[in-house]
Fold this sequence. Notes:
This protein is of the alpha/beta class. It has two domains: 3-196 and 314-405, Zn peptidases (Aminopeptidase); 198-311, Alpha-Beta Plaits, CATH 3.30.70. It has ten helices and 16 strands. It has helices at residues 3-6, 20-35, 44-56, 117-136, 159-164, 222-238, 278-298, 318-332, 349-352, 386-405, and strands at 62-63, 70-74, 83-89, 144-149, 171-184, 188-190, 193-194, 198-207, 211-212, 248-256, 262-263, 266-275, 302-311, 315-316, 337-339, 358-366. Strands 1-2-4-3-5-16-6-15 form an eight-stranded mixed β-sheet, covered by helices on one side. Strands 10-12-8-13 form a four-stranded antiparallel β-sheet, with helices on one face. Strand 3 (83-89), helix 4 and strand 4 form a beta-alpha-beta unit. The longest helix is centred in the C-terminal third of the chain and has 21 residues, at 278-298. Mean pLDDT is 93; it is low at 1-7 and 9-13.
Amino acid sequence: MSRESEADLPGEALPGTLGEPLRAELIAFRRDLHMHPELGNQEFRTTAAIKARLEAAGLAPRVLDGGTGLVCDIGTWDGVRPMLALRADIDALPIPDTKTDVPYRSTVPDRAHACGHDVHTTVVLGAGLVLAELDRQGELPRPVRLIFQPAEEVLPGGAADAIDCGVLDGVGKIVAVHCDPRVDAGRIGLRHGPITSACDRLEITLDGPGGHTARPHLTTDLVTAAAKIVSEVPALLARRVDARSGLALTWGRIEAGHTCNVIPQHAELSGTVRCLDLPGWREAPDLVHAAIDEVAALHRAKSTVNYVRGVPPVVNDPVIAELLRDGMAARRGPYSIEDTEQSLGGEDFSWYLEHVPGAMARLGVRRPGDTARRDLHRGDFDVDERAIQVGVELFTAVAMIDGDQA
């Protein structure tokens, strides 16, 4: 059987298979979101669209306190048995959509769903509609909560605010998917343990008396100080943390001076700190501060460090990762699951896992047979929309299996 046909396999082992009308509706819903992307904490239109569709299905979604994002229960929680939560992120990125060959490209300048959040949202919505129908038929084993979270792309992520709004009250486990353009549609990637990395933001200012480039010995040479910080701090960190933690400082911006013959009085640097494990991530702020202060002091520069905590790594619970595996195998067979590597990207789904166990799967969105190298956070990012059906059936199967195992 070709992978092209695998992506169209119907679900057979469990109830809740998508019919053609719902499949077409979900594709249209995703395209509408794609055409109208909204940045973190500005997702008012997106929130309204999700809310309207859930209410049309007879459900009672609750908009989160910030006015964007919402939570919705399928079935009535008995207050005893913990619920399974399905999480989606709903925000877009501040980059232009450069696709020219599709009718649903972004209509908003410099805004694009270039990370697949429109797909994540549609998948959780579709699963909710299927599960709501199963609940009306008396076939849903236990209630399920849908979480549509804003501001995933805004450090430290909107998950923390959603948790403060009570979205995890009564939840015993949580699952999510993330689009992966390296995995074929019709397949998912799974991993036990860390599947993403921690990601923090670092901003540094350097100050000192500048002066003439003819007499650098009478100044604090901030350009040299900045250059030394850029080159030496990552090397220092590599010798102060276990190499298996994968702590990596990468610079994205350096600014200093305005002309060739004046040593400036002010310089700025910024970058990201990424880490593969939780222990290394928890050590990182103190280690980075100390390394920067040492190098800056050597060059007589006054340093101010703003270390912005981002997100810890997403660490998949093995039991719940296997629940995702069981759900996918029930729908698509064991051939539809592949091992995936740990990504260096950050994901605020990790904040939920500080409170309840959970797991994230990589949802394949690459058209089978496509050999081009594609990635997220690019203006030309797009998906094979058959992935929507796959995600919906995965979540539906997980909800049914989890309920039966309770």
